[in-house]
Amino acid sequence: MFNRLRNKKPASSVNSDMLSKQRRYDSLVRALHADIFRYAYWLCGDKHIAEDITQETFLRAWRSLESLKDDKAAKAWLITIVRRENARRFERKQFDYSDIEQEQLEDHLSTSTEDNAEQYLIRRHISKLAIEYREPLILQVIGGFSGEEIAKILQLNRNTVMTRLFRARNQLKDLIKQPQVRGQSNG
Fold first, then answer.
1. Which residues of 63-79 are buried (b: 16+ CB within 10 A; e: fewer)?
2. Dmax over Cα atoms in the chain, in whole Å?
3. Rounded to whole angstroms, what are the CA distances from 47 to 38, 123, 144?
4. In this structure, what CATH number is given to the domain that contains residue 23?
């Protein structure tokens, strides 16, 4: 019994550790919440699901905050958690399939302003890219990550990432150059 008492931290030390963890976590959330939400939104395309993914990401971050050794790597660490959270959605979800082609569905959410139309088209073109090209491009454009950081997040060679980014940009340029005919699908 004496050994158990001797190994316990004093209450003031535990409180100090918790306060330190809380401060670190709060600063992490303040600094990166917008970026994490934006990336989650790009992954799922739904504001409410992105909010859920972001919340779950920060909950997991809180639980394993001590595993983050370098605060400079926090953004990449959180992006990895976001990717895993998004993947978990599909592990437990049963899809109802429809015979209707996605391009034939009417969009009731977009407004008619030129900026929103342009953003919608770019987002649509990006979504047509294969995941191997889309993901590094989104990490670079939305996340602001370098090729080296993207390589670590995706667990790829840096040269592979740079090649995929080059191809993604070229494919995106080609898609944007294609004439947009109303009611016609380009993919």
1. eeeeeeeeeeebbbbbb
2. 80
3. 9, 15, 21
4. 1.10.1740.10
Number of domain units in the chain: 2
Q: Give me the CATH number covering residue 133.
A: 1.10.10.10
End-to-end alpha carbon distance in the chain: 70
Tens of pLDDT, residues 103-123: 555 555 545 456 567 777 888
> Contact, 187 vs 178, CB < 8 A?
no
Q: Residue 107: inside a domain, yes or no?
A: no
pLDDT digit string, tens, across residues 36-81: 999 999 888 899 999 999 999 999 999 998 888 888 889 999 999 9
Q: Supply the pTM of this predicted model.
A: 0.59
Summarised one tens digit per residue, pLDDT across range 115-160 is 567 777 888 888 889 989 999 998 988 888 899 999 998 999 999 9
- Distance between CA 65 and CA 74 in Å, rounded? 10
Q: Which helix (H) or strand (E) holds 44?
A: helix 11-44
Contact 144, 97 (CB under 8 A): no
d(CA 20, CA 51): 26
